[in-house]
Amino acid sequence: MELLRDRRAEFDEVGVQPIGISRDSPWCHIAWTQALDLNFGLLSDFDGEAVRAFGIGFEFRGFHDVAQRSAFLVDERGTIRNAWNYETGEVPDVDVWLEAARALNPSA
Fold it and tell me: Bridge-partner residues for 83, per DSSP?
């Protein structure tokens, strides 16, 4: 989350609005937003509907629909234009996301 916060200006430059989604509750997201001084929104997928819809759920220690660390680039029409999946603990390469966003909007 800190990667998105710290590089928010670069996302703005390419016309991308970062949003985080997790299975945590909205109240937990408020705490994370305050503790990490986040400058983007967090959405709660408390019931796991998004995890199932995106096909990124797995079972972990008896818990179902645990979300795999993922990132999606969604265009203004709501079409997923790119998707990335990561192993737990793997740090995403934000430059790859920004490059993909620039490819969608070369004038940015």
Answer: 72
